[in-house]
Design a protein that fits this description.
alpha/beta; binds ligand C2E
């Protein structure tokens, strides 16, 4: 038993070093992913809960790794935040999403806006608002058609910096949404002062709906809170028609989730090439 424990330990150490080596390799290949055009932007529809109409699209980044295949953002965004690549990645996604929205507009689409995720690591950097202004000017996208999503926990890491950051972005005329709402412990006093338009209820509170009474209580409270502050409320992670019904009855404004559609490349979103190949 002793020796197998030892082997187990050795095995564990080997696994750890493999894991560490893989992470280092992945991190260094991430540095070239942008240059090698391995990043992709997928789009997931956002719907009006009342009439069911599609109102917007959220841009979600993917990494088409030459060996590993499609790597989800949970596996490289934290890495990109650590090694500083996140600024370049978010800026690239922002530009792609704005260009895509301009081309949807040109196709006569009735989409009102495109939503882009912004990492908390960019709060302390002064240049993001200038970057946003430049991308809007270069692409010709009206500022009101761009929504930026910032997580509640990012805001709560440094609420004063977040307030300044969001105020500068808001001055450009873009829309602002608080992502993953309900997981970041905002105080009401803080929330009231933030120049935002929308709360996105985190999917962890939507998953158990309609049966889970805790989730139902949280969803009801967030919707009431958002509306009392004059904000729109979107529920993330809607997978079942019963959840749509339930949230609609609670007065929730918008919804997003596999029930409406999974994230897909833009070519497969427009309807022009429903069976078209991936890029
Ligand atoms: P998020 O912003 O909360 O995005 C929603 C996530 O939920 C997406 O995962 C989406 O694919 C997934 N989702 C949507 N509907 C459903 C559903 O009905 N059921 C379930 N189980 N999941 C659903 P994804 O694309 O893997 O992205 C994960 C996170 O990575 C995002 O969470 C966001 O925080 C981050 N992320 C993605 N793209 C970017 C980006 O361009 N920049 C930054 N900074 N972060 C990004
Ligand atoms: Ca988001
Ligand atoms: Ca979210
Ligand atoms: Ca529960």
């Amino acid at each position: 038993a002793k020796s197998s424990g030892r082997e187990g330990y050795a095995f564990y150490v080997q696994e750890l070093t493999d894991y560490a080596r893989q992470r280092v390799e992945l991190a260094s290949s991430l540095r070239h992913a942008l240059d090698n055009q391995e990043l992709r932007v997928y789009y997931q529809p956002l719907h009006d809960l009342r009439d069911g109409h599609m109102v917007g699209m959220e841009a979600l980044v993917r990494w088409q790794h030459p060996q590993r295949g499609l790597v989800p953002p949970a596996e490289f965004i934290p890495m990109a935040e650590e090694n500083g690549m996140i600024a370049a990645i978010d800026a690239w996604v922002l530009e792609q999403a704005c260009r895509q929205m301009v081309s949807w507009n040109a196709e006569g689409s009735s989409l009102r806006f495109v939503a882009v995720n912004i990492s908390s690591r960019l709060f302390s950097r002064g240049e993001l608002d200038q970057k946003v202004a430049r991308v809007l000017a270069e692409t010709g996208l009206p500022a009101g058609q761009l929504e930026l999503e910032v997580t509640e926990s990012a805001i709560m890491e440094d609420p004063d910096a977040a307030l300044r950051f969001l105020t500068r972005l808001r001055a450009l005329g873009v829309r602002l949404a608080i992502d993953d709402f309900g997981t970041g412990y905002s105080s009401l006093a803080r929330l009231k002062r933030l120049p935002v338009d929308k709360l996105k209820i985190d999917q962890s509170f939507v998953r158990g709906l309609p049966e889970d009474t805790d989730d139902a209580a949280i969803a009801r409270a967030v919707i009431a809170l958002g509306h009392s502050l004059g904000l729109k409320v979107l529920a993330e992670g809607i997978e079942a028609p019963r959840q749509v019904e339930f949230l609609r009855e609670l007065g929730c404004d918008y919804g997003q989730g596999y029930h409406y559609g999974r994230p897909l490349p833009a070519q497969r979103r427009t309807g022009d090439h429903p069976e078209g190949p991936s890029p």
